[in-house]
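Thread: quick sanity check before group meeting

JM: Hey all, I'm pulling together slides for Thursday and realized we never actually wrote out the predicted structure for the chain we discussed last week. Dropping the sequence here so it's in one place. If anyone has concerns about the input, flag it before I start.
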Amino acid sequence: MPIPVNFFNLTKTVGGVNKTYAFKPEDISFGDDETLEVKLNQGGDIAVIPLVKKSVTLTLNGAVDVDLDTFENERVQNVQDLIDNQPVGANMSFSNYIIYNAYLRKVTPTAPITVSGKTLFDTIELEYVSRAYV
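JM (edit): ok, ran it. Output follows.
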């Protein structure tokens, strides 16, 4: 009898081949990144509307050096695109929770260990942040 397990899948191109990474619910952490309060005049009444940029941290388990390179290259490209005012990010959907225009801002690996010439990481944390306020 199969055990129902829900995973969030993230597909990246590694060496010209699509690779899918799976994250269990406990490997996903949501948060607020940046907040802003906007004042709106509504016929003499001033309404204060709180806006927030959302973030999500994904913990990739059992990663290797190629995975770290893939995500680090994406992060570097995202930073360059932000500097050059180029489009960055894509919507990330987690059931009914959406992070709009999410881009990879931070890549944090644990200390590596080398086994049989292959560099392994217990985990790599990937922090994605929204470019849009909601």
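AS: nice. DSSP finds one helix and eight strands in the chain. The chain has a mean pLDDT of 89.
JM: adding both to the slides.
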